[in-house]
Design a protein that fits this description.
4 copies of one chain form a homotetramer.
Chain A lengths: L1 E4 L5 H13 L3 E7 L2 E7 L8 H4 L4 E5 L19 E3 L2 E3 L3 E7 L6 H14 L3 E3 L17 H14 L3 E4 L6 H5 L4 E4 L7 H10 L3 E4 L6 H12 L6 E5 L17 H8 L4 E3 L1 H5 L5 H10 L4 E5 L17 H14 L6 E2 L13
Parallel strand pairs in A: 7-8, 7-14, 7-15, 8-9, 9-10, 10-11, 11-12, 12-13, 13-14
Antiparallel strand pairs in A: 1-3, 1-4, 2-3, 5-6
Chain lengths: 350, 350, 350, 350
Amino acid sequence: MVITMSLSASAREVSEVIARIRSMGYDVHLSDDKGCTVIGAIGNGRPLDSKQFASLPGVQDVTQSKHPYKIASRDYHPDDIIIPLSGTQVGGPNLTLIAGPCSVESREQTIEIAHAVKEAGATALRGGAFKPRSSPYSFQGMGEEGLKHLAAAREATGLPIVTEVMESQLVPLVCQYADVLQIGTRNMQNYALLHAVGESQYPVLLKRGMSSTIEEWLMSAEYILSHGNMRVMLCERGIRTFETYTRNTFDINAIPVLKHISPLPVIADPSHAVGKSEYVESVSLAAIAAGADGLILEVHADPEHAASDGRQSLRPEQFAALVEKLRQLAPVVGKRVAEPVRAQGSGVRG
Amino acid sequence: MVITMSLSASAREVSEVIARIRSMGYDVHLSDDKGCTVIGAIGNGRPLDSKQFASLPGVQDVTQSKHPYKIASRDYHPDDIIIPLSGTQVGGPNLTLIAGPCSVESREQTIEIAHAVKEAGATALRGGAFKPRSSPYSFQGMGEEGLKHLAAAREATGLPIVTEVMESQLVPLVCQYADVLQIGTRNMQNYALLHAVGESQYPVLLKRGMSSTIEEWLMSAEYILSHGNMRVMLCERGIRTFETYTRNTFDINAIPVLKHISPLPVIADPSHAVGKSEYVESVSLAAIAAGADGLILEVHADPEHAASDGRQSLRPEQFAALVEKLRQLAPVVGKRVAEPVRAQGSGVRG
Amino acid sequence: MVITMSLSASAREVSEVIARIRSMGYDVHLSDDKGCTVIGAIGNGRPLDSKQFASLPGVQDVTQSKHPYKIASRDYHPDDIIIPLSGTQVGGPNLTLIAGPCSVESREQTIEIAHAVKEAGATALRGGAFKPRSSPYSFQGMGEEGLKHLAAAREATGLPIVTEVMESQLVPLVCQYADVLQIGTRNMQNYALLHAVGESQYPVLLKRGMSSTIEEWLMSAEYILSHGNMRVMLCERGIRTFETYTRNTFDINAIPVLKHISPLPVIADPSHAVGKSEYVESVSLAAIAAGADGLILEVHADPEHAASDGRQSLRPEQFAALVEKLRQLAPVVGKRVAEPVRAQGSGVRG
Amino acid sequence: MVITMSLSASAREVSEVIARIRSMGYDVHLSDDKGCTVIGAIGNGRPLDSKQFASLPGVQDVTQSKHPYKIASRDYHPDDIIIPLSGTQVGGPNLTLIAGPCSVESREQTIEIAHAVKEAGATALRGGAFKPRSSPYSFQGMGEEGLKHLAAAREATGLPIVTEVMESQLVPLVCQYADVLQIGTRNMQNYALLHAVGESQYPVLLKRGMSSTIEEWLMSAEYILSHGNMRVMLCERGIRTFETYTRNTFDINAIPVLKHISPLPVIADPSHAVGKSEYVESVSLAAIAAGADGLILEVHADPEHAASDGRQSLRPEQFAALVEKLRQLAPVVGKRVAEPVRAQGSGVRG
């Protein structure tokens, strides 16, 4: 049960509601929705009777909500949530283009590719320093050294940095270097990590679990949002199905569904969804035509020799050609390709 | 094993190859590829040694092909296959827009919706007279009477008719009225039916089985193509996955994959893929952005009272609005919305 | 809407209900349930108001049923349906063991393997004469000649014959030779075929579609049952999932579910479900432990040289060893391995 | 590339191999396999040439292994791994029965159910103190207080405790109370957690990710094993498929596959796999018939009022009835139901 207090509810009214919930053996979860206190009753899985709360002073709304998520729903935020990012914006009419290598491999590679993707129109740089790998024997990323290379690339180009954080303990470290914290597909239900990035108040790019439903995904967003951190971007990266021709199946349906039910920006990751570079452009155009707010793409100067995921990486010139098509496509769906960051060398954080 | 004879191979050379295959206990399957005889050796599942055939007179190519399909592959038809249809063309730079009700309900309804979709830009009329239904107790379609209504609508508007045929015995009947034979998702591997529509030499719209791989789908196309009927359109209509928010998951990846490996036109069916009308426009735009050659859409004047699938049907004005957006989108991917059929009342067949 | 008339309803009462349904623009579907007439109202997909029928004379029950299937449900047949088959019984406490080659290859092979499986404990012989194959270039079965070999094997051993029929037109031909008509996984929703086998009144082994839900499967059974043919066996043969290590994923859950909701016998097909002979025994034991009424297994004297599916075929001695374990397992779940057919050379049909 | 040094390899030979790998720009991962040093070369994803290592002194074997996992494979441990647990054994001929409530709710409930399941034949007690929940508003478990209740139940009954740990930071805390650390399905690829439980050297019950392949699962086991912690039990708990009638689809095929390729014990979790208590017994019997080494089952004295997962919980008497059937079934597959722990109040840890 979720109780929304009215804007004019007094602190005493709020605490009386809380006390009553606790007296019935439930715990409470507090969050804030546009200034209104939102009280979640957390109990033994047994539903509470909502009627006895509806008439308490200061209570605006009691819901055994039709959706299990709340803050992630347009019911509570009818308008698009727009997230500022280093002078650009994510969401609303803006198309955000996040590009860069799968793994950070060296300082030079990182700065070079950052310049290349920026010139082509990227508004943020992606790159992995901590890499989740199925095998303990595979390259696991450069770690903090990789983060430093990313920061150097930001210094050089002004592009904000999107990079993955894999464990809650590492959130403070990654926050020293990153502008957006990426939660990978394997960690979509790593709740300790979701709490940690929620508390960080940093923008978060939340990838969909490879076999998570749309509802489960929004519930994971809710974990972050419930810390008052509204800067969550949802990232569709393909789901696991019986089809093996492509690496995953990009769930294009999910894009209009999410735009319909949630105010959060939606970013598409065609690189992981198809797994083969020759199909990335088509699926990128499709994602934007379906209403996505941006793309995150793997771009590498030399895909054949990439440390990971070379098979699905675009070359910089392929990325530039795609951006040209996106400039033509964007107006059809009421979007514009965000202007690239102009200030160089400043490294201003969003 | 598949042997392609050279264009200049003599009938005697062909029959000697056939004789040798038969002498080894295999049967043969003959088809034609741009004038070259193609001989498939059909045997007990055991591979034949290809070397002893490669040097026979008249043999151009022997392949234990990397793909199990052959005629459906771009290896054999590098260029797009373009299918003429009542004065329009399917494939190449053309966007084909097939629209109409799920089920034919009456003569008036059919003619009325045909006029409406034609005016909005449709180039063909869809409508079901024989309906595959999970339950024996559900409405199974109007049968031949429904076909007559479709023919009347063609008479009135000039739009060619796309309608489903569910059994091989009914192919001759449906051919009396239809311009394109639709094979439904449940029948993608109904081989008797595939042989029958192959022999008919009518254009075929082959829907993907709801859990068929891309390779299995092309193998089903191969059944039709192997009768020399090259007029096959592949129709992506969503696959079955764990996600239940939408009716199916539209496999957007499949579109660039198919365009890459096969010369056959690809038509998208967003109505069945999402199952809810509010998401049909976005997925339609996405499919075309990804490279599809056209759409098949359910359009109904009164979706709330449709005999079937009303939940996913567009109203005519929604369809018209979508076509407007498609006109803007098409040039971005090198396509054009096909001009509507001008001649009225003539009912010329493609 | 489904109306069940009472046992004592007069013909006139029945026809008045039918007339009223028709007067409202609906068609009717008649079937029989333990002597009661069952009237299905088949209409434009729009629900009928059930109240106005409930009070008509002779009406026992009107249901917008919770299940879309009816005759296939235990609501209507609380007791197990037991199907007589050549002196044995399928269902109830009996374990039915159907064994034989994937494809019939020759008269000798068929008779030899029939003797071998009978000796090991099989109660029926399986073998494919018409083979559904993904590729038009693969061996498609021996056709009628194969059916004759199966009949010869029955003549020699007394084992009844289970063989696939792929098209409605071929039902009369296959009925000349077979004791049980098998519907393959690709044809589970081939409604023309379901009607034809329903009308034949022959026992039917209905394989689950490889991506069909349990409910869709029971609806397909309902197509057959609605012809008054109650001799339907449900065959679980694995579903299609993301896991590629095995050919399919055997849905063990489906077995207790089906036994719970339906009175029809359930036969398991571990050979197709796992696709590798080394795992067949374990999954066979599991299926019986879960409550299945029998097994259908591929057994071949020389799997390496089988015309199809050799990779998943047991050798006769492996099958015999499995039957020994089944004899020990059966009492744990209240079953017994059916006694083999004694009468030889008689070929009595069930 | 994975290099196994011979048993007699000198420390100098080992370090020369390591030095050469590093000199080529790769990192190394060291583990131990029955006394032999195993060196994994971890690099930029590019394969190393194995030939130049095969002839170095002290090298026994160089493999670009056919499996990506190594220690988890029977290639390296042909015999079953048997894990001692509080006087009982997991694996080999033993059937391990882990039973208890989904969530720990109180000290009394925990001790009461522990006595009940022990009496019925359980050899370990399960119970969740930290609960992974899709919703931040759901009951998240009692935390450390719950662990204390579990320890009290062990004190009272002697049953070892199996309980979930959700974050790497909590491993030391949970180790203070638990005998077996459970990794939940959502955390199967939480690599920080896998490393932490590997280092703990505690027995681990590793649940399969709900959409993980068998290979990915074994790779996650490898993360734990590579810390020299061989006490890993694999737990099949159902995979996510299109079927919604049951909560998940129990992958029965996975059991013989795992027993074939890996020496690790396999435990089945039918409760989560089917999600409805009426089907738990059948799937439990099936899992053991297929070769599983044990079961983990949700048992609750009052399922209707359980804090979580009541719908799938057995009552103690249902669990006792199941154990009776298991005693009959076990000999058929060469197993025995492990004798219950006799010593009471001692709380000896495994």
